[in-house]
Amino acid sequence: MLSWPAGGSTRRYTMAWVRPGWTAVALLLVYFAVPVTWDSSPTRIGISLALTVAGLVLLAGMMVLEVRAVRDGMTRRSDRAVVLMLMLVVVTSAMTFYLMELSDPDQMSGLRTRTDALYFTLSTMATVGYGDVHATGQAARAVVCALIVFTAVVVVSLVRTHTRLGRARD
Q1: What is the CATH classification number for the domain harbouring 80?
Q2: Which residues contact 160 (CB under 8 A, 6 or more apart)?
Q3: Vertex 61 angle, CA 56 and 65, to 5°
Q4: Which residues in the chain land under pLDDT 50?
Q5: Is residue 10 part of a domain?
Q6: Which are the contacts of 86, defined by CB distance < 8 A and separation ≥ 6?
Q7: Is 4 inside any structural domain?
Q8: How far apart are CA 30 and CA 90, in angstroms?
Q9: What is the pLDDT of residue 127?
Q10: Among residues 40, 63, 111, 140, which is most buried (max CB within 10 A)?
């Protein structure tokens, strides 16, 4: 998926990844630092839902831009954008599972902290299996199913797109 620049310098290639790398670190810092509580207050529920929807809108916008970039042959930019989109999916999904745990502890077994939610999200996306943390409630299982389908669709799409681009260059 990540393409090494043909005839390009290692320094230029490395510098191209500095900004996306710091952005990924910033996303994780925000994920762990933003105070999140769940109570019956309509204001807090509204804010949590607004932030989740904003994350999904940002992700959808990034995907539209990514499709355009791939269509226009911007593969190096494409690789970095894909990494950032996946980080956004990871952080948004982990926060969703964490909020589910706060709102209804019976939805997830073994999920108590943000680290647990991040671990569960990465286990789901990497399809390495479960054990200590798993979905028990119907809502949590529906979200897990959506994440599994999303991950499969994205991976298949990326492989197909990069295969086509590789053939077109040859």
Answers
A1: 1.10.287.70
A2: none
A3: 145
A4: 1
A5: no
A6: 125, 154
A7: no
A8: 13
A9: 73
A10: 111
pTM recorded for the entire structure: 0.67
Of how many residues is the chain composed?
A: 170
Q: For residue 75, what are its two tokens?
A: 């593969």
**Whole-number Cα distances in Å, 23 to 57, 117, 150:** 18, 20, 22
Amino acid residing at 117: A
Structure tokens at 4: 């090494």
Q: Residue 146 domain-assigned? A: yes
Residue 87: give the domain boundaries. 15-169
For residue 140, the Cα-to-chain-centroid distance in whole angstroms is 17
What's the pLDDT score for residue 1?
47
Residue 97 CA, chain-centre distance (Å), reads 13
DSSP code string of 65-125 = HHHHHHHTT-HHHHHHHHHHHHHHHHHHHHHHHHHHHHH-TTSEES--SHHHHHHHHHHHH
Q: Are 112 and 49 in contact (CB under 8 A)?
A: no
Quick one: CA dihedral 31, 37, 40, 43, positive or negative?
negative
Q: What are the φ/ψ torsions at residue 3 (nearest 5 degrees)?
A: -100, 135
Q: Give per-residue pLDDT as tens, 99-118.
A: 888 888 888 888 888 989 98
Question: Please, is 86 exposed, middle or buried when counting C-beta atoms within 10 Å of its C-beta (0-12, 13-18, 19+)?
Answer: middle
